[in-house]
Design brief:
The protein has a domain of about 25 residues. The chain is about 55% helix and about 0% strand. The chain contains one helix and no strands.
Amino acid sequence: MQTENFIVEEIDISDVLVGVPRVALHLLKEQDSAFKLLSSLSYFRRDILIVEWVTNVFSSIVSIACQRSLKQMIQ
């Protein structure tokens, strides 16, 4: 796909979640065979939440910095 100023590559992500069951983590039974999957999925979810938190913090910092610079320009 090409836009006005740059080219965006289309990435096929259809098989990313092939091994992930389509059921909530808390509904999976705690068996020895499922324990490895449960721990991997819970670590994955924790990492996603950490990235989301860091992104929100960074976004807030940038937003506050923009507001302060705008206030200084007005004064």
